[in-house]
Amino acid sequence: MKNVRVLPDPHRYSVCAPADMSIKEFYKGIFEEVYIFYHPFIKPITMDYDSFEYDNYPGKNDIINNCEVVSWKQFLPISGIKSYKELDIGLRTHITGLKDKYKNVETEEVIQKCCEEHRLIIPNEGSFPEILMNTILNAIKNAGHDWIWNGDEFCTERKLEYIDDLIDANKTFPNGHINFFTHDHNILLTTHWDSNFSMLCSNKRTIEKIVKACNLEGFYCDDQTEIVWSIFN
Predict the structure, then answer these.
(1) Measured at the alpha carbon of residue 90, what is the angle toward residues 42 and 214, in degrees to the nearest 5?
(2) Are 92 and 228 in contact (CB under 8 A)?
(3) Cα–Cα nearest to 118, from 77, 84, 83
(4) CA-CA distance, 186 to 87, in Å (whole number)?
(5) In 3-state terms, what secondary structure has residue 8?
(6) What is the rounded CA–CA span in Å between residue 121 and residue 115?
(7) For a disulfide at 90, which of 2, 7, 107, 153, Cβ 3.0-4.6 Å?
């Protein structure tokens, strides 16, 4: 009988918190604060709305140079959705990321109808928001980091990347590589595979600088915040 191979627990400075516990509890002793920032809607300006097909998705810099950010705050009044929690539940329903008892099909339909009417692209889930990434990477660089580790979901594979190369590259970040962390383990940028937001983990001062520099929209986790914060918080 063959021995069962069991992976060791991943280093917490390099991976996303699991969905069944407090985010801050998971990172306790590793990061002082965790900031959740929403993946924005995208409005194509100088490129075709129909370019955002799954098999022909535009490159990162094409999106940055030809589209505009539509924040969740901007989306609420044009859609009539009343809260960020309701919007998050609608987005999770759209990707079939919730059990039936938590779904809100009505809100999901409102989101789709509003996006069709206003020619908006629904936020991506499970991967970094391309339209924000160059700004965020530049902010991490300005915090004193020229290099950053790029890891897969459990960081069983990782690659050291030169930040300027990531900024210059037009390629879209693959869904499987959803963790960026600095060599000194001071900053982690991570995305949950079934969510429409990412998390910035570091000390309060560093996060405040990056959030301000990048105009990120979101909130700081408290001791009770979990991945599915719109339902369980």
Answers:
(1) 40
(2) yes
(3) 77
(4) 31
(5) coil
(6) 6
(7) 107
Strands 147-151, 67-70: pairing is unpaired
Task: Catalogue the long-range contacts made by 224-228 (C-beta closer than 8 Å, 24 or more residues apart).
Answer: 224/22, 225/22, 225/23, 225/24, 225/34, 225/36, 226/19, 226/20, 226/21, 226/22, 226/23, 227/16, 227/17, 227/18, 227/19, 227/23, 227/192, 227/195, 228/19, 228/92, 228/98, 228/195
Lookup result for tokens 């995208």: 42
Rounded to whole angstroms, what are the CA distances from 4 to 1, 7, 55, 91, 128? 9, 10, 37, 38, 34
How far apart (Å, rounded) are the C-alpha atoms in residues 37 and 190?
A: 11
Boundaries of every domain in the chain: 12-38+126-232, 41-118
pLDDT, tens digit, 9 for 90 and up, residues 38-60: 999 999 999 988 888 767 789 99
Contacts of 26 (CB under 8 A, 6+ apart): 12, 17, 18
